[in-house]
Amino acid sequence: LKMSCFWLYLPLHLLAVAFLCHSIKALTTSSQQNFKTDLFNFYHSLLLADGKETTVHLLKDIPKRYYFVLEEGRALAPFTITVTPCDVPIEWSILVHKASASFLGKAARGDHDTQEVSKSQKAPSMVSTIFNFKGNSVETYMGMSPHSALYILEFLSTERDTHITVYLTTDTTSGHLFPELPSDPRLDVIGIGHTTVTLTWKHSPSVSQHRENIQYCLLVNEKHNYKSLCAAETAIRSSGMKLPPTLALSLSPHLLEPQQVMILSNSELSIISKASSGEVRQICMGTKNTYTVPNLSPSTQYYFDVFVVNLLTNASAAYTGTFARTLDEPEPKAMELKDGKVIQVVLDGTNQKFYNLQYQARHKKIQFAFQLCRGQVQVHITKNGKTVVSENISGLKYFSLKGKFLDTYLVQLRSTEESNSSIKVQVSPPLHKPLFPLLPDSLKIKSFSKLRTCNSVTIAWLGTQEESKYCVYKKKIEEDQVWTELQSADRCSGPETRRKSEKVLCKYFFDVNLQRAVTTETIKGLDLGTLYLFDVYLFGPSGIPVRYHSKVVKTRKKC
């Protein structure tokens, strides 16, 4: 024990060392063994700074201890301890070593004598727990010591490794590190729209005292509320986002990460962080205590947290968070379809929302025709609210439906690709002149490898039992253009979009026997070893063309 006291002189405060060593002497032999544990705990404690915020890193199931001393001259003075968990709930407690005030004062000055020691044997020191807490909320302990004492703070995380912040102050006259909250720290939702939520809250008393050093910051997310700014930063980082050093005060654009967007307007700073778990917005609005959050998604529940921040110290206090669900998105107005009229719809692939068309039947039997121009499109048709068609469209597609006079049909179109898609739509009664020509079983163009030469290729395509006009076009392309040409082709565009020099020929043909409804064409005058893109357009009675699937063929290099 003497050796232990000797080594304690090096890292610890002289007063605390003298206090513990004297306490050991004051104990009876039977009590000394129990006191060894207290001595060991103290030896492995760290000094907690007064008036500064300390970050403490905790390993799972391993307690960590800090101590501070209230000397004789500080007796009866109040002190406060604020602990902020930054992630999971933790357990923490405050223990106090009490002893004679007169002895501690003399121990600090080093002038105690044997008689004083013998007196102190009648009043051995005591160790008691004066406060303990378990949870993840910010908790403040306010105390007042009636005599000099040594305090030990013990922290423990039982869930996982984490970190916390601890603030101790024994000087209550120099102002507060943490901004003050009003007596009612709740957020009030005073307005909800389809894409907006309006919030208000009572002013912090710190605003009236230190307006130039205080500001409010709002955090918006779709997961849950946060009890501290520290907890919010930790959760956002763990979701895959990288935040600036101080979430609420990041005013420099170069501190932002690629997945963040900063918007500065009307004296408001907004930082939008994106990750797989969703979007988190951080908005700092000065000392305004009413704010309308814009650009939210309809039919979505959002969680709102307001923090009052001390700009000088970066310390913050959290209001009681709230949540609100934006209003459902209003049903978009449906465009009216008319008998025989063709419309072309361009669909936005980024939001993949449905585009609505409405038709009121004038006949019991009707036919919908869809021609896919670009991309991929899903078609959903309901009759009087009941689904009758739900299908992805490729090429040209007809749907013949039976119903009653004045039945209401709703056609919903949606792009299934991230890029934009487009489609042509027509509805008509069965006796109406068809918009599109009669189609063969396949719209593929076939080429014959054995018939290729250095300056010609032979292609073939299927026809129908109806005499129709077919036009062939060619275009030189490079190797690196093949994929783009095939994927980006507008299958609804006609020959009017082509150059006259690309036209090869036009011809009419049909055959009542579908087995023989096939035609071939040898295209001459080509360059050797060159890639060509061939297109065939089929024209029906209405004059609207249908484009066969493009075919890429390369002439031979050697003949």
TrEMBL record:
Instruction: Give the InterPro entries listed for this entry.
Output: FN3_dom (IPR003961), FN3_sf (IPR036116), Ig-like_fold (IPR013783), NDNF (IPR019326), NDNF_C (IPR045805), NDNF_Fn(III)_1 (IPR055271), NDNF_N (IPR056225)
Note whether Endoplasmic reticulum occurs among the keywords. no
Q: Which Pfam families does the protein's record reference?
A: NDNF, NDNF_C, NDNF_N
* Record bears the keyword Amino-acid biosynthesis: no
- The principal localisation class reads secreted
Residue span of the signal peptide, if any?
1-26
MF terms in GO: heparin binding
What is the recorded function of this protein according to its Swiss-Prot or TrEMBL entry? Secretory protein that plays a role in various cellular processes. Acts as a chemorepellent acting on gonadotropin-releasing hormone (GnRH) expressing neurons regulating their migration to the hypothalamus. Also promotes neuron migration, growth and survival as well as neurite outgrowth and is involved in the development of the olfactory system. May also act through the regulation of growth factors activity and downstream signaling. Also regulates extracellular matrix assembly and cell adhesiveness.
Q: What protein does this entry describe?
A: Protein NDNF
What is the protein's species of origin?
Answer: Cuculus canorus (Common cuckoo)
